[in-house]
Write a structure and sequence with these properties.
Elements (H helix, E strand, L loop, with lengths): L7 E6 L10 H4 L5 E4 L6 H7 L5 E3 L15 E6 L2 E6 L9 H7 L4 E3 L7 E5 L2 E5 L13 E8 L2 E8 L3
Length: 162
């Protein structure tokens, strides 16, 4: 019997809109990678996130088109788990059903709605870490942590201080 691999912990963040709350550093402490699902709001947000871990970010509907660090989507594989990151606005109103129909990945990370969501269907995951930037719509600011161990995925939402 082979020994299990060490857990891989990935930070998930979205909708910072130019504001990186100080407790993001605590909420994402120890992650090895950060995936930002768009509406970044400036390179200074990416630079500060890089103090925590390397960052892959995508373009949101409020980010400038053609930004060299913000592709429309990021697809990567982490220990056999296929992860897709996009903002979600490309679908109009992103829902777990239409995201699962559009993207063939094990984990789909999106933003845009500012609403925290974790959905699990047919061995696939859809996650919106919520909005980490300015508080809107009376929603609690948040990020998420995704743990991958032996191809098993676990995701938790981490609320941020208001």
């Amino acid at each position: 019997m082979s020994a299990s691999r060490a857990a891989r912990v990935i930070g998930l963040i979205s909708d910072t809109h130019g504001l990186l709350r100080p407790d993001v550093h605590t909420a994402l402490a120890g992650v090895e990678l950060i995936l930002h699902a768009g509406d970044v709001g400036g390179d200074d947000v990416l630079q500060e996130l890089e103090l925590i871990a390397p960052v892959h970010a995508v373009q949101g509907n409020t980010d400038p088109p053609g930004h060299p660090r913000l592709p429309l989507a990021v697809d990567l594989e982490i220990d056999g788990v296929r992860v897709h990151v996009s903002h979600g606005h490309e679908l109009g109103v992103p829902t777990p059903e239409n995201l699962l129909a559009r993207y063939d990945a094990d984990v789909i990370v999106y933003g845009h709605t500012h609403k925290q969501l974790i959905a699990h269907a047919d061995e696939r995951w859809v996650v919106n870490p919520g909005a980490a930037g300015p508080r809107r719509f009376r929603l609690m600011p948040s990020v998420a942590r995704m743990t991958i161990r032996d191809s098993a995925v676990a995701i938790e939402i981490v609320d941020l201080a208001v």
